[in-house]
Amino acid sequence: MDQFLAFMVVGLSTAAVYAVIGTGLVVTHATTGVFNFAHGAAGMLSAFAYWQLAVGWGWPVPLALAFVLLVLAPAFGLFVERVLMRPVQALGEAERLVMTVALLTGCIALARWVWDPNTARPLTPFFADRPALGIGPAAVTWHQAITMAVALAIAAALWFLLHRTRVGTEMRASVDDRSLAGLTGADPLRATRLAWVLGIQLAAVGGILIAPAVALDAQQLSLLIVSAYTAAVFGRLRSLPLTFLGALVVGLLEAYLAGYLPRNDYLPGLRLAAPALLLFLALLAFPHRRLRGRDRTPVRVPLPTARGSLLLAGATVLFGLVLVTVLTEDVVVSYGTLFPLGVIALSFVPLAGYTGQISLCQLSIAGIGAVVWGHLGAHGEPWALPAAILVAAAVGALIALPALRLSGIYLALGTAAFAVVLDRWIFTLPAFEILGVRVAFFEQGSVAVTGPDLFGLHLTSPAQLLLLSAVCLALVSLGVAALRRGRFGRRLIALRDSEAAYATLGGRLLVTKTAVFTLSAGIAGLGGALYGMQLQTVTAEQFNLVAGLPVFLIAVIGGLGAVGTGLFTGIAFVVPAQLLHGAGPWAHDVTALLVALAGMGLAQSPSGVVARIRAEWAPLGRDRPLLYTLLSVLGVCWLLAALDTASGWLLLVIAVGTALLLRTRAAAQRPPSDIPPEWWGLRRPWRPEDGEVLSRATSAAS
Predict the structure, then answer these.
(1) Are 509 and 500 in contact (CB under 8 A)?
(2) Angle at CA 185, nearest 5°, toward 182 and 186?
(3) DSSP 3-state of 15
(4) For the chain, what percentages of helix, strand and coil (3-state, to nearest 5) are there?
(5) Which residues contact 688 (CB under 8 A, 6 or more apart)?
(6) For the whole prediction, is pTM greater than 0.70?
(7) pLDDT attached to residue 437
């Protein structure tokens, strides 16, 4: 009984922290309509800042607390509202989600850059020198008592603010109809600003309170928010009492699992994954109207032409040939993951780009493909590659089932929870048997991966594997482009525009969603197998949720509806990191920070960078003399680099400079592009995508 009460005290203390953080999520979402994925990262940065002031610089604890909670946290909240969220407020839910994911990635990268993750930074609990308080047979430390008291005080203060003050009424009214709230004399902008400040302050309080109980680690503290996600979903993102109830359930569940879970090789990961598993179940168990909201998708999905798709595929293979002929073998190893990551990123295009279904577990599914290939293709058996694709596709079909109940941010939450469950529990399981079939994942360590046997040749060298990955990326790009042009692709676009209208007109939601999730997961599984071949050894950490967020961000930056996003993501993810690799160990964090900053600039180009690049370089492609000149210069530079007769950097400067010069000249000769639609086909040639553009415009007008 004493042990039961002791675990209850620990659970109540942890639940109090989750309640504080969860209420911050509820306040932000209930006022602004934005679910802040970076909420935990804000608490993490606050905990690091508090450590720096109180321990690193020796400030008095009250002064350090006041500076973090009353100066740094409000300033950060104002920055997020004014600089990041306000520009994307008029865009769809996916764009706002991407902004918070970019902020999460940037906060983790910034913390790792400023505070060396290899240095321990312990935080002393409040009043640690005082004896614990005795409540019956249980002992409650002063830090635990303060945590629970702060949670109760915050709950009372928030309830009073939201229900008994004019400012709170403005905050609750702004999310339902900002224009109507403004007509009644309210100030929606002030309410939004206050919500972000309060939300970040609550995250800071939670981060500081829980930091003494865990290691000051950027990733671990940021992912503690998964438990707060569960509490907020219990409250359906609106109810503070239900949020506290959810926090109580999560906190006590974690404590009792830690104390009473049987000790064996299969269950330790269950305790770590329990909050994410509970979040996944809560999303399915609470069929609330707000959990079924449809994402607004104002960004048009481009229609790739057959000629453009073939050019992209050819350019992809040609780029692979350039890399293997110009770079040395050790450098080819560094660039080998470019094309596999491109395949994984391309799995977002049919799912998120065509269908509007947001998934954050694509890299985790790629990990399944890598593991299946590593075990079944240990000797290069070619049949193991289709097997890896099929197993990953089956996992995608499994994920499609909750997709029928959820959409938008809630589907993103569900897939994020699925990724955490895989990372913390499933991937850590030892090998086991089901009906006589041996099932193995990473076997609590790493898995060796080799190349395949194709046409009697065992592909093992970095150059061979890079070319194989380039060919696969080219073929998958052709397939995704053909999907967009086909009948099924038009069905996916219709589903993206309106699920209700699609079902009303006879569309089969279950079949369509299952098919697109299966297809997307199969592509990710192929990318994971290729990724494992390049790395030769894979671990579970390489496929966790945090590792997959930059891939998702770069794919969004490139444009989820563009087929060229695959190649763009591979280049943007690998090339800058390799160029900065020699600068020091901090280069990786700087690269991740640059990716996050690029994601934060999404409002400047919601259609993606690939579409802009295509529009800017299209005039050069239509000018045959200038195009042939550019190809000749590039060919000469390639030959000189392959023969090692000139400096690679000099040739790169010449090639890039020539391309920019010719593009500028072609743009100067381009006729005006602002031709009214009624003159399309007369003053300029008719394009394949014009019919769809006109159909959409006519439908919107009617």
Answers:
(1) no
(2) 60
(3) helix
(4) 75, 5, 25
(5) 303, 305
(6) yes
(7) 75
